[in-house]
C-alpha cells in the first residue's frame, strides 16, 4: 500500500510540474504572437493560432514524458531533470521561432495569427515538434 501512496505522490508532483510547463508554453506562444492567444483561438476560432499552440503543447508534453520515462532513481533528481529539460525545450522553441522569423519575410507572429489559414503555421509547428524531439533524444 505504501508503494501506491508513494506512486501517487510522485505522479502528483510530476503532473503539477508538467502543468506548470504547459502553462509556461501558453504564455510563451502568447508573448511571441500579437494579440491575446486565448481570444484568437476561442473567440475568433483562429486555426493558425490553434495549430501553433497545439504543437508547442505537444512538444512540451513530449519532453516531460521523456524526462519522466527516463527519470533517475532519485525522485528529487528526476523532478529537477524534468523541470530543467522542460524549460530548455521552451527556450529552444522560442529561439527556433525567432530564427524562422529572421529568415522569412514579414513578421512571423503576425502571420501566424492571420484569420486565413497560412502554410507558415505548419512550418513553425513542425519546428516546435522537431525541437521537442531533439531535446527528448538528448535526455535518453
Automatic annotation (TrEMBL):
Keyword Cytoplasm among record annotations: no
Transmembrane segments: 12-29, 49-72, 79-100, 120-139
Assigned keywords, A-Z: Cell membrane, Membrane, Transmembrane, Transmembrane helix
Keyword Cell membrane: yes
Cellular compartments annotated: Cell membrane
Bilayer topology: Multi-pass membrane protein
Family: Belongs to the UPF0719 family.
Protein name per the record: DUF350 domain-containing protein
Taxonomy of the source species: Bacteria, Bacillati, Actinomycetota, Actinomycetes, Kitasatosporales
